[in-house]
Amino acid sequence: MTYSGVVTVGGPADVHELPDLMISKVAVGPMNNNAYLLRCRATDEQLLIDAAADPQTLLSLIGESGIASVVTTHRHQDHWNALREVVDATGARTVAGRYDAEGIPVPTDVQIEDGDTVRVGRVELTARHLVGHTPGSIALVYDDPQGHPHVFTGDCLFPGGVGNTWKDPEAFESLINDVETKLFDRLPDETWVYPGHGDDTTLGAERPHLAAWRERGW
Predict the structure, then answer these.
(1) For residue 59, what pLDDT is reported?
(2) Fewer CB within 10 Å, N or C, the chain?
(3) What is the Cα–Cα distance from 162 to 132, expressed in whole angstroms?
């Protein structure tokens, strides 16, 4: 079936089948958090992005194969409140941005910075440090060698705008600058965006609105 990226809490995962990577998306919890399970098709190694809200749903998605690692995109509790249970059940190593690790109560095994590589099997993802929603938010970019890029943006980029900066002009300026220079300026319109909540989008769908976002200040 064609992947849409539209999921509902309590509903089934939507699976994006790429040549080298399988991406399964589920929605969990009262804040409609998205969690993403990545599986390398060559090795079957798995990685989870954001252990949010509902450990049983996430562990069911992971299955008996387990996961090698869990990446937490940022320090906000709704993105890690199932992390302890998932790590205890799977033994996975924990990964987070260096400047948000101190705000995550489960110890971070691997602290990453802008440009660092995160691997799942033979697949490589590149971390992009985006400052503003939190000090250490990390997006992960998969540049599919057989297709277009894919980016997991946490709460830094959504359909219709960047993440919440709580009416702080400096935080907003930092976030929109980082999103523009590290994502929009480097990646093509076809880049698929997987946000931390809600539906997916593409950079091409959002690019025409960057100036309007700057003008409104959020």
Answers:
(1) 98
(2) N
(3) 10
Question: φ, ψ for residue 217 (rounded to 5)?
Answer: 85, 20
CATH class as words, domain 14-216: alpha beta
* Cβ neighbours of residue 190 closer than 8 Å, sequence gap 6 or more: 148, 149, 202, 203, 204
Cα separations in angstroms, 82 against 138, 160, 192: 19, 28, 26
Distance CA 182, CA 153 (A): 11
Whole-number Å distance between alpha carbons of 62 and 173:
37
pLDDT at 41: 98
**What is the pLDDT at residue 121?**
98
Output Rg (C-alpha) for the chain, integer angstroms: 16
pLDDT under 50 in the chain at which residues?
Answer: none
Distance of alpha carbon 118 from alpha carbon 116, whole angstroms: 7
Structure tokens at 95: 């990964």
Structure tokens given for 179 = 């999103």
pTM for the whole structure: 0.98
Helices of type H across the chain: 55-62, 83-90, 169-179, 203-206, 210-216
Closest to 40 in 3D by CA, of 69, 11, 14: 69
Q: Rounded distance, CA 209 to CA 189, Å?
A: 13
Going by C-alpha positions, the residue among 178, 2, 185, 201 that lies closest to residue 97 is 178
pLDDT score of 19:
97
pLDDT in tens, 113-129: 999 999 999 999 999 99
